[in-house]
Design brief:
95 residues, mainly alpha
């Protein structure tokens, strides 16, 4: 594990990135709850997919498990397809 030596550069970088990922997840959830339009909510939902993707890559680095990168790739594909589908639905006048 990379946090065994807390003074290493990678441990500090992973800790800082974890704090920023949690903060961005909270802000995206706030945007979904209070978004002024449906388009803002779709963008926030896409951001949550990206943050989840980054968290899985973070855990892959932390636990040194390359198999988690396969699930990150699948989440990236599903997130992209879902965003395109939502955008097309909202572009055609859906609520």
């Amino acid at each position: 594990m990379y946090f065994d030596k807390p003074d290493s550069f990678l441990a500090i970088a992973l800790l800082i990135s974890a704090v920023f990922l949690v903060a961005s997840l909270g802000l995206a959830l706030f945007r979904i709850a209070r978004g002024p339009s449906a388009f803002d909510r779709v963008v926030a939902l896409d951001l949550i997919g990206g943050v989840c993707l980054c968290m899985i890559v973070f855990f892959a680095i932390y636990f040194d498990q390359q198999v988690l990168l396969d699930s990150a790739f699948v989440i990236a594909l599903v997130s992209f397809i879902a965003t395109v589908a939502f955008a097309r639905y909202l572009g055609k006048g859906g609520d």
